[in-house]
Amino acid sequence: MAISSGSSSFAGKAATRVRLTEIFLSIQGEADSVGWPTVFVRLTGCPLRCSYCDTAYAFHGGEWFRIEAVLEKVASFDTRHVCVTGGEPLAQKGCLVLLQRLCDAGHQVSLETSGAMDVSTVDPRVVRVVDIKTPGSGEVARNRYENLALLRPEEQIKFVICNRADFEWACEQVRTRHLQERCMVLFSPSSGQVEAGELAQWILDARLPVRLQVQLHKYLWGDTPGR
Ligand SMILES: C[S@@+](CC[C@H](N)C(=O)[O-])C[C@H]1O[C@@H](n2cnc3c(N)ncnc32)[C@H](O)[C@@H]1O
Ligand SMILES: Nc1nc2[nH]cc(C(=O)O)c2c(=O)[nH]1
Ligand code: SF4
Ligand SMILES: [Mg+2]
């Protein structure tokens, strides 16, 4: 194809770099792959400001890396599972290429994403974990509910519950949108706001077909960045 100097040819060019906060090896603390040794790739920047965000250090800063260099670093950990997170990973164009390349390299890849971005263009080999933002997050207006119809049975929807009103709102979403028929639905307590045992009892009392998730890494290591 001829190289044009028009702006459209640049718009169509595949991204080759991502802005990165950290890459580290840890135990997956969330979602269906909880417990697996996992390499975390945390991309920088997020257009949301959830009240409870435990990763605000990824909003700014970071460094640009070539996707090739990220792949090399990931490979150096010799680990099958890779989790791409942030910040909001899908806010960067290069994320889609990175996900594709991680799959090509044979990794089992999961993506942690807010419900605020379009997830339709993510490589189908990636397991998408889509957070539906609750009223307590302060970002409920950002949810793209059209994402939910795209999820496959092995993918996941997550609600981070900040209080009893969030729980009731999330129950309503599960019931009216028949979410449990679509894929696994996770309820996670917002750390420091709701006790895991309290949320467990609410789920049991409501006879809700959802899975309780705790952030295992916080039980292991507290709220330490890079863990
Ligand atoms: C840091 S976010 C990064 C990915 C993406 N921006 C998102 O919100 O899904 C990863 C996950 O951690 C959750 N999370 C952040 N702070 C939390 C907290 N204090 N307690 C429980 N979950 C939290 C988010 O809701 C999200 O599901
Ligand atoms: N150990 C560990 N597991 C995680 N699963 C999702 C995480 C995230 O920040 O998205 C995360 C994290 O920050 N650490
Ligand atoms: S969308 Fe994710 S990274 Fe962004 S503020 Fe909310 S929890 Fe934090
Ligand atoms: Mg985290």
UniProtKB/TrEMBL annotation:
Its EC number is 4.3.99.3. Binds 1 S-adenosyl-L-methionine per subunit. SUPFAM superfamilies: Radical SAM enzymes. Substrate binds at I27, Q28, G29, R42, T85. GO terms for molecular function: 4 iron, 4 sulfur cluster binding; carbon-nitrogen lyase activity; magnesium ion binding; S-adenosyl-L-methionine binding. Its cofactor is S-adenosyl-L-methionine; [4Fe-4S] cluster; Mg(2+). S-adenosyl-L-methionine binds at Y52, C53, D54, G87. The keyword Zinc-finger does not apply. GO terms for biological process: tRNA queuosine(34) biosynthetic process. It comes from the Bacteria. Belongs to the radical SAM superfamily. 7-carboxy-7-deazaguanine synthase family. This is 7-carboxy-7-deazaguanine synthase. It comes from Steroidobacter denitrificans.
